[in-house]
Protein backbone atom coordinates (compact mmCIF):
# COMPACT_ATOMS: atom_id res chain seq x y z
CA UNK A 1 0.00 0.00 0.00
CA UNK A 2 1.33 3.41 -0.99
CA UNK A 3 1.48 5.89 1.86
CA UNK A 4 2.74 9.44 2.26
CA UNK A 5 2.40 10.65 5.83
CA UNK A 6 3.11 14.29 6.64
CA UNK A 7 3.96 15.50 10.12
CA UNK A 8 5.39 18.53 11.88
CA UNK A 9 2.63 21.03 11.29
CA UNK A 10 1.19 23.26 13.99
CA UNK A 11 0.91 26.81 15.25
CA UNK A 12 3.95 29.05 14.83
CA UNK A 13 4.48 32.77 15.36
CA UNK A 14 5.39 35.06 12.49
CA UNK A 15 9.13 34.99 11.96
CA UNK A 16 9.42 31.55 13.48
CA UNK A 17 10.48 28.22 12.04
CA UNK A 18 8.89 24.85 11.45
CA UNK A 19 10.10 21.60 9.89
CA UNK A 20 7.69 19.38 8.04
CA UNK A 21 8.41 15.72 7.29
CA UNK A 22 6.80 13.33 4.85
CA UNK A 23 7.46 9.62 5.31
CA UNK A 24 6.90 7.46 2.24
CA UNK A 25 6.25 3.77 1.88
CA UNK A 26 4.92 1.33 -0.69
CA UNK A 27 6.73 2.71 -3.73
CA UNK A 28 10.27 3.26 -4.96
CA UNK A 29 10.82 6.58 -3.21
CA UNK A 30 14.32 7.22 -4.53
CA UNK A 31 13.07 7.25 -8.13
CA UNK A 32 10.38 9.87 -7.54
CA UNK A 33 10.47 13.63 -7.76
CA UNK A 34 9.05 14.89 -4.48
CA UNK A 35 7.17 18.13 -4.01
CA UNK A 36 5.49 20.17 -1.33
CA UNK A 37 2.16 21.73 -2.28
CA UNK A 38 -0.05 23.89 -0.09
CA UNK A 39 -3.64 25.04 -0.02
CA UNK A 40 -4.58 28.20 1.82
CA UNK A 41 -8.13 28.83 3.03
CA UNK A 42 -10.38 29.59 0.06
CA UNK A 43 -7.61 29.09 -2.49
CA UNK A 44 -6.47 26.37 -4.85
CA UNK A 45 -3.43 24.17 -4.64
CA UNK A 46 -0.11 25.99 -4.85
CA UNK A 47 3.10 24.16 -5.68
CA UNK A 48 5.91 25.61 -3.54
CA UNK A 49 8.94 23.36 -3.94
CA UNK A 50 10.21 20.22 -5.59
CA UNK A 51 13.37 18.16 -5.39
CA UNK A 52 14.75 15.74 -7.93
CA UNK A 53 14.94 12.02 -7.22
CA UNK A 54 18.62 12.11 -6.30
CA UNK A 55 18.28 15.31 -4.30
CA UNK A 56 20.81 17.05 -6.50
CA UNK A 57 18.47 19.86 -7.52
CA UNK A 58 15.61 21.77 -5.90
CA UNK A 59 13.28 24.47 -7.13
CA UNK A 60 11.02 26.92 -5.33
CA UNK A 61 8.04 29.13 -5.93
CA UNK A 62 9.02 32.78 -5.65
CA UNK A 63 7.08 33.53 -2.46
CA UNK A 64 9.05 30.95 -0.44
CA UNK A 65 12.44 31.24 -2.13
CA UNK A 66 15.14 32.05 0.40
CA UNK A 67 12.90 31.11 3.35
CA UNK A 68 11.99 27.46 2.76
CA UNK A 69 14.30 24.54 2.01
CA UNK A 70 13.26 21.17 0.64
CA UNK A 71 15.49 18.16 1.25
CA UNK A 72 15.25 14.40 1.18
CA UNK A 73 16.85 11.34 2.74
CA UNK A 74 16.45 8.43 0.36
CA UNK A 75 17.77 6.01 2.97
CA UNK A 76 14.87 6.98 5.23
CA UNK A 77 12.29 7.42 2.44
CA UNK A 78 11.54 10.87 3.80
CA UNK A 79 11.27 14.36 2.35
CA UNK A 80 11.46 17.49 4.48
CA UNK A 81 10.45 21.11 4.27
CA UNK A 82 12.34 23.52 6.52
CA UNK A 83 10.28 26.67 6.90
CA UNK A 84 12.04 29.77 8.23
CA UNK A 85 10.88 33.37 8.64
CA UNK A 86 7.29 32.25 8.27
CA UNK A 87 4.54 34.76 7.49
CA UNK A 88 0.78 34.73 8.15
CA UNK A 89 0.25 34.13 4.42
CA UNK A 90 2.09 30.82 4.80
CA UNK A 91 -0.95 29.52 6.71
CA UNK A 92 -2.19 26.50 4.76
CA UNK A 93 -2.55 22.76 4.64
CA UNK A 94 0.75 21.39 3.36
CA UNK A 95 0.79 18.24 1.23
CA UNK A 96 3.68 16.19 -0.06
CA UNK A 97 3.50 14.69 -3.52
CA UNK A 98 5.52 11.99 -5.22
CA UNK A 99 5.63 11.86 -9.00
CA UNK A 100 7.17 9.65 -11.64
CA UNK A 101 6.14 7.92 -14.84
CA UNK A 102 5.02 5.03 -12.65
CA UNK A 103 2.59 6.98 -10.52
CA UNK A 104 1.53 10.12 -8.68
CA UNK A 105 0.83 10.02 -4.96
CA UNK A 106 -0.42 12.45 -2.31
CA UNK A 107 -0.32 12.60 1.47
CA UNK A 108 -3.23 13.58 3.67
CA UNK A 109 -1.76 16.97 4.55
CA UNK A 110 -0.64 18.75 7.69
CA UNK A 111 -1.98 22.09 8.90
CA UNK A 112 0.41 25.00 9.39
CA UNK A 113 -0.97 28.12 11.07
CA UNK A 114 1.15 31.25 11.35
CA UNK A 115 -0.30 33.62 13.94
CA UNK A 116 0.69 35.63 16.94
> Could you tell me the mean pLDDT?
97
Strand content: over 45%
Treating each run of at least 4 consecutive H or I residues as one helix, how many helices?
0
Shape: globular
Structural class: mainly beta
Tell me the Rg in angstroms.
13 Å
Distance between the termini: 39 Å
Secondary-structure element series: EEEEEEEEEEE
Largest sheet: 7 strands, mixed
The amount of helix comes to: under 10%
- Give the low-confidence spans: none
Q: Tally the beta strands.
A: 11
Kindly list the characteristics that best describe this protein.
116 residues; mainly beta; seven-stranded mixed β-sheet; four-stranded antiparallel β-sheet; 0% helix; 54% strand
Description:
By secondary structure, the chain is mostly beta strands. The chain is built from no helices and eleven strands. 0% of the residues lie in helices and 54% in strands. Strands 2, 4, 5, 6, 9, 10 and 11 form a seven-stranded mixed beta sheet that branches. A four-stranded antiparallel beta sheet has the order 1-3-8-7, with no helix packed on it. A hairpin with a 5-residue loop joins strand 4 (33-39) and strand 5 (45-51).
Short description:
This protein is mainly beta and 116 residues long.
Walk me through the topology:
Elements: E1 3-7, E2 10-12, E3 18-25, E4 33-39, E5 45-51, E6 58-60, E7 68-73, E8 78-83, E9 92-100, E10 103-106, E11 110-114
Parallel strand pairs: 2-11
Antiparallel strand pairs: 1-3, 3-8, 4-5, 4-9, 5-6, 7-8, 9-10, 9-11
